[in-house]
Design goal:
- It is built from 16 helices and no strands.
- With 407 residues, the protein is mainly alpha-helical.
- 72% of the residues lie in helices and 0% in strands.
Length: 407
């Protein structure tokens, strides 16, 4: 069998249409309600809370199922609070948190395979949660950590309520596990050296991916550690096959998302496409992992690039605050540094006024000299006999004193 045939090998028995319809209803109701109240930024937490709590359903009597799903909801709420709380902080703190959560998720196999899968789901949600705050900040979307926690709990409660209604409709009978692909074994296992080593290596790889993506401030930074987390398997053959299927699915999903984004402009039409892609992904999960990844990648890409609920009042207020400041600063600089032409124009009348006043004073001085002929019988610097007077003589002083006094 060729490598491409292995990547796209189909298992037609894995098709589950009823699961896709349930996922369609679970995602459609919250997106309509949140769209009406203008809180679409909390839809991701609601959707993941409902879907992951539903996947953790162990089956059996409803009381046992409700207790396990409630525990999953509480642990998810804690991780939601931590993820949204540190998501926009220093990337070193995010790397440390990702390492601890991934390591504990890998060691959860001690409590059985089913709980290990539940821990894996919580780990994946935590990697998504630490990447959402930075994206919301870039899109100017207001998001509160406590509101995201409530959204996760609301999604979890939605699935528990749906399970309760189905339990009543089926005569209050014990129900098998809703997702057969997830093992239901809860037998404790011993933590051997290979298990611990694999958990540590996976935690280091995820932490490295988080450090690269968050340290470089990449958009949608959680995609890189999430892909690393999903692709790592216990054997090289499984890791290589999953990595190839995920890469092929991501390329197909990106092409599908680009097609929809280029041809569909209506916001509600994009939301409908998002819900349909999520339902298709849930239906074909057991058919082929590459096709499932394509549907989920298209779902997330459309969701990330669809019009976010930006608050226009904040933008208007920002412009109102910053534009007048720039204008005031520009006017102040112009007042401090007048143009050269304006200074020359201001200086020219002043110089003309000084010259005119000097001439007026000199004219008055000459008139006063003519009114006192006795003191000024001899020209300046000449004696009565017509000979030059010595420098610094009294005649020179008498001539200069009236002029200097008038000036």
């Amino acid at each position: 069998m060729s490598p491409i045939a292995k990547v796209f090998k189909l298992n037609r028995k894995g098709l589950n249409v009823s699961r896709g319809l349930i996922v369609l209803g679970v995602m459609l109701v919250p997106i309509i309600v949140l769209d009406v109240i203008g809180k679409e930024q909390y839809w991701v937490s609601v959707a993941f809370g409902a879907l992951f709590v539903g996947l953790s359903d162990p089956g059996g009597e409803f009381g046992y199922r409700a207790s396990r799903m409630g525990l999953m909801a509480v642990m998810g709420a804690v991780l939601t609070a931590v993820g949204f709380g540190i998501g926009d902080r220093a990337w070193e703190l995010v790397v440390l948190a990702a390492f601890v959560v991934t390591l504990l998720g890998g060691l959860a196999v001690k409590f059985g395979l089913h709980r290990f899968v539940a821990g894996t789901l919580l780990n994946a949600w935590f990697l998504v949660a630490i990447g959402l705050p930075a994206g919301y900040k870039l899109d100017h979307v207001t998001s509160h950590t406590w509101a995201q926690v409530l959204a996760w709990l609301a999604g979890s409660a939605l699935w528990v309520a749906l399970a309760f209604i189905m339990w009543l409709a089926r005569g209050r009978q014990s129900r098998p596990e809703p997702v057969p692909e997830i093992p239901g074994d809860v037998t404790p296992r011993k933590l051997t050296r290979p298990i611990i080593l694999f958990a540590v290596i996976r935690a280091l790889a995820v932490s490295l991916a988080v450090g690269i993506a968050f340290g470089l401030h990449l958009p949608n930074a959680y995609w890189m550690p999430l892909a690393t987390f999903v692709a790592m398997k216990s054997s090289f053959q499984q890791s290589a096959l999953v990595a190839e299927q995920r890469l092929a699915g991501a390329l197909i999903g990106a092409a599908v998302a680009s097609l929809f984004l280029l041809t569909v402009d209506a916001k509600h039409a994009l939301e409908a496409i998002i819900v349909l892609l999520g339902a298709v992904g849930a239906s074909i999960r057991g058919v082929n992992y590459a096709l499932y990844t394509a549907a989920i990648a298209g779902w997330r890409s459309d969701r990330d690039r669809s019009a976010p609920p930006v608050q226009p009042r904040c933008r208007v207020a920002t412009r109102a605050l910053h534009v007048p400041r720039r204008r005031d600063r520009r006017d102040r600089d112009a007042a401090r540094q007048p143009a050269p032409k304006a200074r020359q124009q201001d200086r020219a009348p002043r110089s003309r006024n000084l010259h005119g006043r000097f001439r007026l004073r000199m004219t008055n001085a000459a008139a006063s000299l003519r009114q006192h002929p006795a003191k000024t019988s001899s020209p300046r610097g000449m004696t009565a006999a017509g000979s030059p007077s010595p420098r610094g003589s009294k005649d020179d002083e008498r001539v200069c004193q009236p002029a200097l006094g008038s000036v």
